[in-house]
Amino acid sequence: MTAVPKILHFVCLCEITHIQRDYINLWIAANPDYVIKIHTDKYAFLARELAVRLQKKASKETLNHSGKAFRTALFSWQNDAFNYIRNRVATEAGIESFANSFDNCVKAFCQERGLGTAEELDNSYDANRNRLSSAQYFLRKANPTTDITIILSEDAFFPSPSYYLTELVRRGNLITASEILGL
């Protein structure tokens, strides 16, 4: 019989929230001798920001219309973003090009469609990266004897790029996108 490696894997997109941090701390308390590996997409720090901006834009456009109008407008914006990003995310031999990374495509899309300035998007990107580093710091501080590593995945679009991108953009569903990333 082979022993199972004492490693706990977690997947988080955009940031590690306080709830996620508390959840990881509970797992560490129950398994103090395990190594903790937190996986995130190196190029998708703006996924939540895109979802929020698309919802706000659809909401503004349909303020004086029925509830169905909002869903239709949101779907239209999500499809536009999906097609824009899908057509620009370049891949070569399984390695995502940074110039056409998800985050850079989100920045370009938002700027071209008037959904945000370069400065606003850069600030959001930096804030999300900083929150990730801060969460890692607090996890290590609370658990000084536990090996805690954040793994920045560079190949999140493989092997299921359309499913992952659909969840990130068309649905704004970071939970399902996290599950796909975890595969």
Summarize the structure.
This protein is α/β, with parallel strands linked by helices and 183 residues long.
What does this entry look like structurally?
It comes from Candidatus Regiella insecticola LSR1. The chain has 183 residues and is an alpha/beta fold. It has one domain. Helices cover 57% and strands 12% of the residues. The strands form two sheets. The chain has a three-stranded parallel sheet, sandwiched between helices. Strands 3-4 form a two-stranded antiparallel sheet. Strand 3 and strand 4 (95-96) form a beta hairpin. Helix 3 runs antiparallel to helix 6 (161-170) and helix 6 (161-170) packs antiparallel against helix 7. It is elongated. 31% of the residues are buried.
What topology emerges from the helices and strands here?
Layout: E1 7-11, H1 18-30, E2 35-41, H2 47-61, H3 67-88, E3 91-92, E4 95-96, H4 102-112, H5 118-142, E5 148-153, H6 161-170, H7 174-182
Parallel strand pairs: 1-2, 2-5
Antiparallel strand pairs: 3-4
InterPro entries: Nucleotide-diphossugar_trans (IPR029044), TcdA/TcdB_cat (IPR024770)
Protein name: Putative cytotoxin
Organism: Candidatus Regiella insecticola LSR1
Percent strand: 5-15%
Give the termini separation. 25 Å
- How would a crystallographer describe the biggest sheet? 3 strands, parallel
Number of domains: 1
Multimeric status of the protein: single chain
Give the low-pLDDT segments. none
Total count of helical runs of at least 4 residues? 7
* String of helices and strands: EHEHHEEHHEHH
Helix content: 55-70%
The number of E-state strands comes to 5
Strand order of the largest sheet: 1-2-5
Pfam families: TcdA_TcdB
Organism: Candidatus Regiella insecticola LSR1
Domain GT44: 6-181
InterPro entries: Nucleotide-diphossugar_trans, TcdA/TcdB_cat
